[in-house]
Amino acid sequence: MLRVDAAQGAGRLACMKLWRSPAARTGASVAIATGLYGVSFGALGVASGLDFWQTQVLSLLLFSGGSQFAFIGVIAGGGSGGAALGSAALLGIRNAVYGMQLNALIAPRGWLRLGAAHVTIDESMATASAQADPAEQKRAFWVTGVGIFLLWNVFTAVGSLLGGAIGDPKVWGLDGAAVAAFLGLLWPRLKAREPAAIAVACAVVTVIVVPFVPPGVPVLVGAVVAALWGLFGVGKADEGLEPDVEPPHRANQGHDLEPGSGDERERRMP
Amino acid sequence: MTTWLYILAAGVVAFLTKLIGYLVPARVLKSKRMTRVAGTLTIGLLASLTVLNTFANGQQLTFDARIGSLLAALIALLLRAPFLVVVIVGAVVAALLRLAGLG
């Protein structure tokens, strides 16, 4: 009896800590902001020709905003499933880098590793690494990651239902919404001259090859250009690794892997 | 049916990619080059997807209402609008341009 009370007490204490933790609150606000735009993914998913459950399974299993938008973007453009899979997979490679860094930061053990891996995305990485205290890093990571997973899936369903109900997606400008969504995902990553140059180079090459290769392949050509640039060009090591929704208190810092490399971020492009 | 296979495969590949980071020894992935390519790939792919969704129609390049969406989204981002507002602006502009008989 005494033990049960003690367990309940400990649980209540943990809840209190989570409620009072600044990292958990930051995580919750990032989760709400990010989760909400699951609506746009759901609507664009059904507009691209996928059905309700196909769109939902992308949010449940693929669960990485950029990769999900890439998958439906290629499908909407008439690309093959293979090309959609390829671009989604390539866009997910940065999550492996996050996984390695989070493994050092929060060191999940046993089965928790599988859960941690699944909610390893731009935002959970960014909010966790913004914290100095190890306990706060853990809270930030789990609250952001799990919070986004839940809200993102709920709002994907809302978006799919809305998108399915409105009929011809073109009349409502949903193809224009997809354009805006990709530019919005790209934007936080263009804070210096080099990433802007990479973006322009890849955009130009993509447009040039469109008439000559099957739909879906131009994106992969753009990926090759970007990878070659990364391999042989000289520049910052963490270019492009920014969250879509930045944690509030570090809005002007960018995402630094090394201390002292933040000043370059202050010069906003354009 | 094949669409389902690709969706499930994409999910499995994405999960394994994330898991690799937790399972391999840090020094294997901790090269600057790996981090850098992951970053430049992200920028390049998103840029490609942006122009592709603006100008491509299958294997043809077309100029239609989506260009209006691109410009409107750019303005919204310069004004520091949140992501969801940017997406809605993109949709509204394309819809209005079509209503006006353009694109």
What does this entry look like structurally?
The complex is a heterodimer of chains A (270) and B (103). Chain A is an all-alpha fold and 270 residues long. Chain A has one domain. Chain A has 14 helices and no strands. Chain A has helices at residues 2-20, 22-36, 38-47, 52-62, 65-76, 81-91, 93-106, 112-118, 122-129, 134-165, 174-186, 193-209, 217-232, 263-266. Residues 249-270 of chain A have low confidence and may be disordered. Chain B has 103 residues and is mainly alpha-helical. Chain B has a domain at 63-103. Chain B is built from five helices and two strands; from the N terminus they run αααββαα. In chain B, a hairpin with a 2-residue loop joins strand 1 (56-57) and strand 2 (60-61). The two termini of chain B are 34 Å apart. The mean pLDDT of chain B is 90. At the A-B interface, helix 4, helix 5, helix 6, helix 7 and helix 8 of A face helix 1, helix 3, strand 2, helix 4 and helix 5 of B.
What descriptive keywords fit this protein?
heterodimer, A: 270 residues, mainly alpha, 14 helices, B: mainly alpha
Task: List how many beta strands of chain B DSSP finds.
Answer: 2
Radius of gyration of chain A, whole Å: 20 Å
Please tally the β strands of chain A and state the result: 0
pLDDT average of chain B, as an integer?
90
Largest sheet of chain A: none
Radius of gyration of chain B: 19 Å
The helix/strand class of chain B is: mainly alpha
SSE succession of chain B: HHHEEHH
